[in-house]
Amino acid sequence: MKFDCLASSSSGNCFIFQLDESRTSLMVECGISFGEIYKYCNQQKIDFSDVKACLITHAHGDHCKSAKEVSRLNIPIFTSKPTLDALNVKGNAMILNEPNRVLDGLFVIPFAVQHDIDGAVGFLIKTKSETILFINDSKGWDINLINFKPDYVFIECNYDQTMVYAQLNTLKHNVENEIFTGQVNKEDHMKIKQHERNLKSHMSLAGCIRNLKRLNLSKCKAIFLMHLSDRYANEYKMKLAIQNEFGIRTLACQKKGGIK
Question: Which residue, 99, 238, 245, 246, has most beta carbons within 10 Å?
Answer without folding.
Answer: 238
